[in-house]
Amino acid sequence: MKRFFAWWRIDDQERVQRKVISIWLESATDDLKKAYNLIVDLSNKLVFEIETPQTTIDWAVRLITRYEVIKCPYTPLNLQLALRLGLRAPALRRRFVWLLGSAAWASLTVLLLHRVSWLPFDWFLISLLAVGFLMIVCTYRGYKLLPVIRTITANHEAAEQLFYANLAELQRQAKSLLFSNRMKKVSQVQSVLHAISFQQQQAVVSIRSEPKNPIIHKREPVIETDGANTHYPMKQAWERFFNEVFRLKEGLYNVPLHRDLGSTEIFIWDIPAVSFSRWEESLTRIEAYLKKPIFFIHQDYGGIGTIGIEIAKQPLPKEIHFNDAIDLSTSAQKPECVIVGLNSKNTVAWNFRKIPHGIVAGTTGAGKSTVLYAIILQLQRQNHLPLFIDLKGGVSFGFVGDVGYPIAETKETALTMIKSAAKEVERREKLLKEWGVSPNIVVYNEKTGANLPEIFLVFDEFAQFTDKWQGLEEGMSCMKAIAAKGRSNGIHLLIATQRASQESLGSTDFRSNIGFRCIGRMDSATSSQIALGNNAAFERLPSTDYAGLFVVRGTDAPMDSLTKVPFINDMDFRRLFLEYRNPHEGYKLGFGTPISEAIQKVEPRNFNDIF
Q1: What is the pLDDT of residue 518?
Q2: Which pTM does this prediction carry?
C-alpha cells in the first residue's frame, strides 16, 4: 500500500519536468511561427494593402528581435500556458480523477441551485459546469508547474541549448526576412525596429551614466552582444581553431546553429570569408582541435554559402564481429549491394550495379583481407560468380576450387582468365543488343529466362600482376575494356593491393573507372593520393590501432567517411565459404552455357518498342 500511494503521489517527477519543457517549447515555437508567418504575409502584400493592426506587427517584430538579445525560448507565463500545462503535463490518471471530481462538484452545484431556485436539474448544465471546473483545476495545477520553467531560464546555458536545438533555425529565417530589402519599404515594421534601436541606445546610456559605486545595485539590462560571445558547444575549441588556422578573431564570425542528430551533431557556420575548399583542406585540423571525428562536411547545408560540419559524438568501436554486422541468410534479399562495414550512423553498403568496380587497399594489418572476406561471402550467398586470382600461390583462396569456383594462381592462368572475361563482355554486349535490352543484364535475364550470372574478377594482390612481365600489356588492355564496359554486362572488378602506386594500380584512366574505394591506413601521402585522391588515408587514420578502420567512397555513405569493417578470421571465412557450392559451376567465360530450348524457341525482339 505504501508503494502504491508513493507511486500515485510522486507521479514520476522527471517525466513531468520533461513534459513541461516540451509544452513550453511548443508554445514558444507556435508564437515564433505566428510571428514569422505574419512577416511573410507582410512581405507578400503591397504597402497600401496592409491592414494588420500595428500592435500585432509590434508583437511579431519584438518577438523575433528578442532572440538576438537573449537566446532563450520565450512564451508568456500566463493563464493560457498554465492551462496547457495542466491539461497535458500531469499523468492521465490524475487528469481522469480531476474530471471525475469536476463532474461530482458540478452535479452537487446544480442540485443545490435546483433546490433553492428555479434552475432545472439538467445534464447539459452539469456538463458545462464540469468542463469549467476542470479548466479551473488544470489552470491551478499548471501554475504550480511554472517554477520548472523558471528553473530552466535561470540556467542560461541550458536555455541556450534548448534554443539552438529547437528555435534557432526558424529564428534565423525570420530574422533574414525581417531585415530584407522588401521589408525596408514597410513603414509599420521600420517604426518598430527604430523604437527597439532607440530603447537599446537608451539602455546603454543609462548603464554608462550609473555611478561607480551605486548604493542600490540594480540589475543591468542585457545588451545585444556579438554572436561570438554567445555560448555554444565546444566554443573554446572552435575559437582556437578559427584564431590559429583561419586567422579569424572574435567578432568576424557569427554563432553557429547547432543541431543534435542522435549519433552525430552538426554545426552550421556562415563565414563568407572562408571558402568550402578551405574547410575541406582543414578537415584533419578540425578533428585535432575538437578531439572528435568528423562524419561529413556539407556544402550549402542551411542555405547558399553555409557550411555544415557534422561530427560523430563517439568514436567507432575497436572491433565489430562479422556475425553482429552482416546476416548472410538475408543478404540474398538485396542482390545488388553488399555491406562493407559500419560508420557513425548506419551500415555502409556498396551498390555494384551503380558503381561496378572497386579497390581495397591498405598496409599490412589494415584489414584488407577482412574486407574481401565480407564482400565475397555476400556475393556467394547472392548467387553471383566470383573468379579468384591469387598470385601468392593460392595461400588466401586456394581452397575455393573445392566447391567449384575458378581460381588462377599464376600470371599465365590469370591472363587467360582476364582474356576470357573480356570476351564474355563482348559476347554479352552482342546478346543484349540482339534482344534489345541493352544495357541491363538484369532485364535480359527477366525477359529471356536466362541465368547469366554477375561475374566478379577478384584480385588478391594486384601489384604482383602489374609487375613487368611479358603478358602485362595485353592483360591491362583487357582490364581496361572490362572497366569501361563491364557495368551494363554484369562483369565487375574487385582489386586488392597493399602497395598503392602508379605501377601497382595501373594508369589514371584505368583508376578513374573504379568508383568504389575502401582504403585503409597508408604509409605515405603519395600512396593515399593515388588510392583515394586525397591524403585522408594517411592523415585521418591513426598510425596505431588502425586495423579495420577504412576511408570509404562510392557507397551509400557520405564520401570519404570513416568506416569500421567487421572482423572475420581466416578459418571462419573458409568454413562459411565451403558450406555453399558454386551454382554456376561449369560456366565458360566467353562462351557461356547452352541456352535452353525454351529460350531458343522465342524469337528475339526489341522490348523497347513497347514503351
Answers
A1: 93
A2: 0.60
